[in-house]
């Protein structure tokens, strides 16, 4: 039980340093905002899965990456499939689209498009500049490569 106040304190300090609200941090970590708020207030200790999510998001690079992607989405939003959603909750949209973008990249998509490419992929490519995942982020993904791997081409 004594670890809960320490976790509570550390979360509060991290939120203050990053300038994030509990709601924003919940969206960024993938922990439901209500659950995140309860973690911050010390209602219970985080699970090991939640600790991994917290560790991943409370790095400056990841937060900068998400906010840069959000800016790129706003810059390319006019007429896009995500325009209305972005106007309602831009942070959640940025997190989800960045996650999808990373999964496509991990599966081998090189972001080259042509006229036959679906509109959503063209829109994703436009917002993707300067949004490359770090090696650490790629190492924390589980299952994406095996479920989305592209076929290997033989050299013969």
Quickly list its features:
mainly alpha; 156 residues; 0% strand; single chain; 434 Repressor (Amino-terminal Domain); 10 helices; 2 domains
Question: What can you tell me about this protein's structure?
Answer:
The relative contact order is 0.11. The protein is built from 10 helices and no strands. 64% of the residues lie in helices and 0% in strands. The chain is mainly alpha-helical. It has 2 domains: 3-57, 434 Repressor (Amino-terminal Domain), CATH 1.10.260; 60-148, no CATH class.
Note poorly predicted spans: 133-156
Number of DSSP strands?
0
Q: How helix-rich are the residues, as a percent range?
A: 55-70%
Strand content: under 5%
Total of domains:
2
Shape: elongated
SSE class: mainly alpha
Based on CA atoms alone, the radius of gyration comes out at: 18 Å
Largest sheet: none
What's a concise summary of this model?
By secondary structure, this protein is an all-alpha fold. It contains 10 helices and no strands. The protein has 2 domains: about 5-55, 434 Repressor (Amino-terminal Domain), CATH 1.10.260.40; about 60-150, no CATH class.
């Amino acid at each position: 039980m004594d670890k809960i106040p320490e976790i509570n304190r550390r979360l509060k300090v991290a939120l203050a340093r990053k300038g994030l609200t509990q709601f924003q941090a919940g969206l960024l970590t993938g922990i439901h905002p209500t659950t995140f708020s309860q973690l911050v207030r010390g209602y219970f200790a985080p699970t090991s899965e939640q600790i991994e999510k917290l560790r991943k998001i409370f790095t400056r690079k990841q937060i900068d990456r998400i906010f840069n992607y959000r800016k790129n989405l706003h810059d390319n939003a006019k007429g896009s499939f995500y325009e209305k959603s972005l106007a309602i909750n831009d942070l959640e949209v940025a997190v989800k689209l960045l996650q999808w973008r990373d999964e496509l990249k991990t599966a081998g998509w090189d972001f080259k498009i042509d006229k036959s490419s679906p509109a959503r992929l063209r829109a994703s490519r436009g917002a993707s500049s300067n949004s490359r995942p770090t090696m650490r982020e790629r190492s924390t993904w589980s299952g994406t490569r095996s479920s989305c791997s592209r076929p290997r081409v033989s050299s013969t």
